[in-house]
Q: What sequence folds into this?
């Protein structure tokens, strides 16, 4: 018998669907001030950083006259307050404008690459969880044994290898030597086979780091959980060992694992730039770096709004999962 | 335990079956696959195409009234392009161009007429619609005489009238109707008359071009060009080795060249224009307002060592403050030789017997930073300690234009006529922090009269003499210290035939013409 009965999600998990909806709405509304604060900071920071977008766009032979003309055209000659209010009001209405460099709609630019970023983030998360959680449990169950030592060493190696090293090794082995995967990773979004095929190596490169991290967290959480009284009680009552581990042990160890996964997904969304560069994939990270290099203020601002929103959603899902895993969180 | 093993095995099998490990075939058809070191293209309106990635692709889509012979950057080899012939008045100020008939724009935008040419050149000469407006200052008027004749009147003579009308920078001709119809989106939906038309740009991935079947020189033999944006050098090289690219943007580095030449069926092309790197010394600010310290800098630099560092195949010593091969270049200028002992003596004479420390702002771009670090070591031998303040590239460009660095390392190629280089880098009108600023970081103006006189001279020999004199004055004043010239490098599969011999390309990448083919 489980100490924590599994909740029936829609019914009792959040005290009914309306309670959960209310919670979600409250959280989303609470995110609005955060969003405005972040947007304000981004607006200020991109303008404090030296480097003139007009000079970047026009190149090194541009005359001051041409630079001034472009600054006027881009609206950069307006007062900072005027630029700020126009940016905030447009952003709150969902209009992110156009890129200063390419003239393309920011929404269109982001929409073109967001599926690639989500593919990679979700696949890496799944890889990390599917590999990290079982290995972590296995290591905890064999504390100080060969498996445990191997898991600890390998996870340390996984954490120590940056993507630009592991990625190149993967490309050398699986693209150049065995020719299983292409080096150029940008897939045709409409071709799901191609999309999946080109997702494998970047997922492994990025997922290995996540798996290493999750392995270590799972191992220590499981060790703590398996030492608790309720585990001893369950075993004394004759609950099968597999059930004790997977239901009683893992369930109670899940909160730190979910926290780590939630945090990591947030990081992956914006920080997968190295993976995108090594594997030649489009993605949000690459756009952010490009926009920063080119001082594309509007693009940076638009990306930050979208990035913030994604982080809010990930955090919300993490919080909802807490309630599913541990009813005490829900009660609070 | 068995459950865990089963879960691990299950995940591995799921991944393996999902990907279909069937040995992907990377078929090679009549699509030319090009790898470029960039995140994305920027502005494909040719009059705003300032970065290498934009310049290379724009050259495949547009024509000028005249063009450099494919594979050459020699102004003496400029030949007809959209104009089939031209004539000029005796004083060289009135030029009449007769356009080819039947030249079609991409995408059904109709036949090229004089109206398109007038519109394009006026656009190229307007600061709000072109990054190259300054090049067209001398033009007084442009008018359509009839549907296929254009007349251009100059205020004053310029060294190369045909030069500003070539397939380079502002010289490209756009479709008037397309610009008016597409407005601001023209920068990503350009319409030209060149052998290839833009099909689509996939952000962060590629620009896809298709052959322009109605191209006036005949339909291109290559059907499509896939112009891939691959910023990582290592990944781009791997993709080339894996035969996923036919043409690859290379690195001006001897090790890279040697390694790439060893790849089977590969040709490495090294071509002009060379980018001349100069250390510009601000003659108006301490410590370089003392010519002895500038001379010490000049004696401290050893160009032969710099060439050995960068590579004999991809670089050569700078010999003047104008790149070699430019019309008007002169090596007879009294350039100071490497002599660290003389440099120390000059420093002592200038009141720095124990050496001097100089703080300089420099970019973090690896190729420029590496070179500057070698120079830093050379200066150290002469008693000059260089304190490098390394900043991000856009910051570097802004700060050097605010005179925040007493010495500025700058590497550039320009239209191959001495006037452009001398005017932009060493004419008083181009001094930074002035309303007419370009890139004169040294604040030198000692050769202004020679540069101005040469520009309007109609006697080619006199012009060359004046440019040589200007170089001698600037070198003797040590307005800058030339370092090395770095050439362009691309690697290609040996089945790619450009259709011409590649010795140079003003678009900074190989021209892909109607004659180019994949054998």
A:
């Amino acid at each position: 018998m489980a100490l924590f009965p599994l909740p029936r999600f829609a019914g009792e998990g959040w005290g009914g669907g309306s309670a959960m909806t209310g919670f979600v709405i409250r959280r989303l509304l609470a995110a609005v001030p955060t969003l405005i604060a972040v947007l304000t900071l981004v607006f200020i920071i991109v303008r404090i950083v030296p480097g003139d977008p007009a000079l970047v766009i026009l190149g090194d032979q541009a005359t001051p006259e041409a630079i001034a003309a472009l600054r006027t055209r881009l609206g950069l000659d307006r007062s900072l307050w005027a630029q700020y209010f126009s940016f905030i009001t447009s952003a709150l209405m969902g209009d992110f404008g156009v890129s200063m460099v390419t003239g393309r709609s920011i929404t269109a630019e982001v929409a073109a690459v967001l599926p690639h970023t989500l593919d990679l983030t979700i696949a890496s998360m799944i890889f990390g969880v599917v590999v990290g959680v079982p290995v972590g449990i296995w290591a905890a169950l064999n504390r100080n044994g060969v498996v445990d030592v191997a898991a600890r060493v390998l996870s340390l190696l996984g954490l120590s290898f940056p993507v630009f090293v592991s990625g190149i090794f993967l490309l050398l082995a699986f693209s150049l030597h065995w020719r299983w995967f292409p080096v150029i990773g940008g897939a045709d979004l409409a071709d799901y086979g191609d999309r999946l095929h080109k997702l494998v190596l970047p997922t492994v490169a990025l997922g290995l780091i996540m798996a290493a991290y999750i392995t270590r967290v799972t191992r220590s959480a499981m060790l703590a959980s398996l030492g608790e009284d309720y585990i001893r009680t369950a075993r004394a009552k004759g609950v099968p060992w597999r059930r004790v581990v997977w239901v009683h042990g893992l369930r109670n160890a899940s909160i730190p694992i979910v926290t780590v996964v939630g945090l990591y997904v947030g990081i992956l969304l914006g920080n997968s730039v190295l993976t995108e560069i090594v594997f030649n994939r489009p993605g949000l990270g690459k756009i952010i770096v490009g926009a920063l290099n080119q001082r594309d203020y509007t693009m940076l601002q638009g990306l930050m709004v979208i990035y913030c929103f994604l982080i809010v959603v990930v955090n919300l899902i993490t919080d909802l999962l807490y309630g599913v895993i541990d009813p005490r969180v829900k009660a609070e | 335990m068995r459950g865990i093993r089963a879960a691990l095995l299950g995940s591995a099998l799921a991944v393996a079956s999902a990907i279909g490990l069937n040995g992907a075939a990377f078929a090679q058809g009549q699509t030319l696959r090009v790898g470029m070191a960039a995140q994305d293209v920027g502005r494909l309106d040719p009059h705003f195409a300032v970065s290498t990635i934009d310049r290379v692709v724009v050259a495949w889509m547009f024509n000028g009234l005249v063009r450099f012979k494919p594979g050459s950057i020699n102004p003496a080899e400029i030949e007809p392009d959209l104009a089939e012939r031209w004539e000029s008045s005796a004083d060289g100020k009135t030029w009449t161009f007769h356009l080819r008939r039947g030249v079609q724009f991409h995408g059904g935008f109709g036949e090229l007429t004089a109206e398109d040419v007038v519109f394009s050149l006026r656009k190229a000469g307007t600061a709000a619609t072109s990054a190259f407006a300054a090049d067209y200052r001398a033009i007084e008027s442009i008018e359509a005489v009839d549907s296929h004749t254009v007349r251009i009147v100059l205020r004053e003579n310029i060294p190369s009238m045909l030069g500003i009308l070539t397939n380079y920078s502002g010289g490209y001709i756009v479709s008037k109707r397309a610009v008016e119809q597409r407005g601001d989106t023209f920068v990503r939906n350009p319409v030209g008359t060149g052998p290839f038309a833009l099909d689509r740009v996939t952000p962060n991935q590629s620009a896809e071009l298709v052959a322009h079947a109605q191209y006036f020189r005949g339909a291109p033999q290559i059907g499509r060009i896939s112009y891939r944006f691959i910023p990582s050098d290592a990944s781009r090289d791997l993709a080339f080795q894996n035969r996923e690219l036919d043409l690859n943007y290379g690195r001006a580095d001897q090790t890279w060249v040697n390694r790439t030449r060893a790849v089977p069926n590969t040709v490495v092309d090294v071509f002009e224009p060379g980018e001349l790197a100069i250390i510009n010394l601000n003659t108006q600010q301490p410590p370089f307002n003392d010519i002895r310290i500038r001379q010490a800098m000049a004696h401290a630099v050893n160009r032969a060592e710099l060439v050995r560092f960068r590579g004999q195949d991809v670089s050569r010593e700078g010999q003047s403050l104008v790149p070699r091969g430019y019309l008007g270049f002169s090596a007879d200028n009294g350039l100071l030789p490497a002599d660290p002992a003389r440099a120390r003596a000059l420093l002592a004479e200038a009141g720095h017997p124990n050496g001097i420390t100089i703080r300089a702002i420099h970019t973090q771009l690896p190729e420029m930073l590496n070179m500057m670090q070698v120079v830093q070591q050379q200066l150290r031998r002469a008693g000059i300690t260089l304190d490098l303040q390394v900043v991000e590239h856009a910051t570097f460009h802004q700060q050097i234009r605010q005179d925040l660095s007493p010495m500025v390392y700058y590497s550039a190629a320009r239209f191959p006529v001495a006037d452009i280089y001398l005017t932009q880098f060493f004419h008083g009108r181009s001094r930074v922090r002035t309303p007419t600023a370009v890139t004169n970081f040294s604040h030198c103006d000692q050769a202004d009269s020679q540069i101005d006189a040469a520009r309007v001279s109609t006697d080619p020999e006199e012009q060359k003499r004046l440019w040589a004199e200007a170089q001698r004055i600037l070198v003797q004043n040590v307005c800058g210290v030339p370092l090395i010239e770095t050439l362009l490098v691309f690697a290609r599969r040996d089945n790619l035939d450009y259709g011409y011999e590649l010795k140079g390309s003003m678009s900074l990448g190989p021209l892909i013409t109607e004659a180019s083919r994949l054998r």
